[in-house]
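Build the 3D complex.
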Amino acid sequence: MGGDHGPQPVVEAAATALALYPQIEHIFLVGIEKELNALLAGRPLDRKRLSVVHASEVVTMEDKAVEAVRRKRDSSLSRAVDMVKDGQASAVLSPGNTGAFMAAALIKLRTLPGVDRPGLATVMPSQHGRFLILDLGANADARPQHLCDYGIMGEIYARQILGVPNPRVGLFSIGTEEMKGNELTLEAHRLLKDSPVNFTGNIEGHDMFADKVDVIVTDGFTGNAVLKSCEATSRLIYNWMKEDLTQNPLRKLGAWLAKGAFESLRKKANPDEYGGAILLGVNGICIKAHGKASANAICSALRIAADAITRQVNTLIVEEIRLTHEKEHPAQPAPATVA
Amino acid sequence: MGGDHGPQPVVEAAATALALYPQIEHIFLVGIEKELNALLAGRPLDRKRLSVVHASEVVTMEDKAVEAVRRKRDSSLSRAVDMVKDGQASAVLSPGNTGAFMAAALIKLRTLPGVDRPGLATVMPSQHGRFLILDLGANADARPQHLCDYGIMGEIYARQILGVPNPRVGLFSIGTEEMKGNELTLEAHRLLKDSPVNFTGNIEGHDMFADKVDVIVTDGFTGNAVLKSCEATSRLIYNWMKEDLTQNPLRKLGAWLAKGAFESLRKKANPDEYGGAILLGVNGICIKAHGKASANAICSALRIAADAITRQVNTLIVEEIRLTHEKEHPAQPAPATVA
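Done.
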């Protein structure tokens, strides 16, 4: 209910996803029943695989994260997460308030065994491919171990969902050399080097789109800053281009002749197929679609949710984290009892 | 000597700057005498206002920062900073190794009284204007007080050099609300609010180009990450555009007709007039030109160096920092002596 375009794109995406993806057993649409039923009316769809679950409240984009979870107990966002907690659903998807969604997921589902902090991950386009980046803001004050865990979780996601056989994991820093960075990244570098992750070292901003890595690991503050800076730059250039290309008839004609190029550019920069962000490390599959997500984008996100379930991303994370932490802190032999 | 294009653009810029800016009393070209004299030969310039100072070594872009300063004592970079230290020059400009330049400046010149850490600042273009951002990497592990001092220094620079009467200072964070951020920014927010700076609160990545602030304050790790991410995004879009616009004859024709727009775009994104970055907070005016800087960009940087001297940027910083710290930690009355 709480996305920028309300429930319309969600309902449309659910209908399409049921038709396209047989691996999706059932979709529960959680929200104001009357509105959802009105949007469903007349759609040719398999009602045996879709149900509406009523929730009377809506978390808005302006609501404060933790407060929204605590106060609006009957919101679509809270109820949907509850369904995962209660085992009625295996995954939850929301295009609503990101902070509230992350708070609900963390408070209700808790983290996976061995995981201290979840990380919000998304796929970004690169020059000739794509890469996963996390954390984007679930955890603004990360410790080195968190970054190492993000490497493990990101690698599993890239292998299982993006289909990269041996994902290259880079640590975002301010220089490629090992000794470049801040206290956090210097220590995280050491941990990642000792981890089972295919760690390729530091990656700096200049190289982030150069197809050098499949996963970029960073703390939530930096990740959020970097993601938003990239989006802001792209919007700035788009706005400038629009101003410059419409300044006289000759340029307008040129832009019209080359319009295929601009359309292709738009698709590369905003690919609907990526479908949002995933909150890795919580005990349940939690997908955050963009607030402005189209039905197409939400439909892709539903496919990703289904893939994450069938490919057992969370089971693999728990296992890999356990093995890594065991290696870092091997179980001590029991001390001999002193008589 | 150590810029990507060697001394050529520096010599050219010096010649132009002497002709354009009478406020520049004298320029010392520091480097390998023979090379510099060869580049100067035949140029119509006022040799009374220009001298060549020999330095036998060159710091390369690959040299490690502190090591370069310690080992290559007769490098152009070191010698040029020495001249400021010894009072022979009022400002130093280098297009060479950024890390080595910052290390030389900090080691040889030290910080201004009251300033704990210097901050590297540059001007970035915004939608319809420009803004100053610091720190870009002089100080990767900043404390809240450093960010507050950056606000003071940035405000003075924006007023004196960019000509903004009452610069709006924003703190880079991951949300506009006061309670959004990490431990560092939450505390820095409090300090900036209590400081004499015209502090407008948090600014997030999405709004950085929206002409909402004149100065953005951040720690060196985030600043470096953000700057490089913006540059990488801009390059990514440029590369994609080139690919897309040359894919068929129609698009090529369109691009040719609209070429004025692309030229205007290029100028907005890479304005030569900004000329580089300034290391604020060290005891001397230190300007870092881009390694790839053109003669035009270096010439602008020379004008900025001259402006920073005549408008007494450093004197103003010392005064303002002193007043702010006094307000924060007022001098205690002397304790009564106990007989």
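Chain A is about 45% helix and 15% strand.
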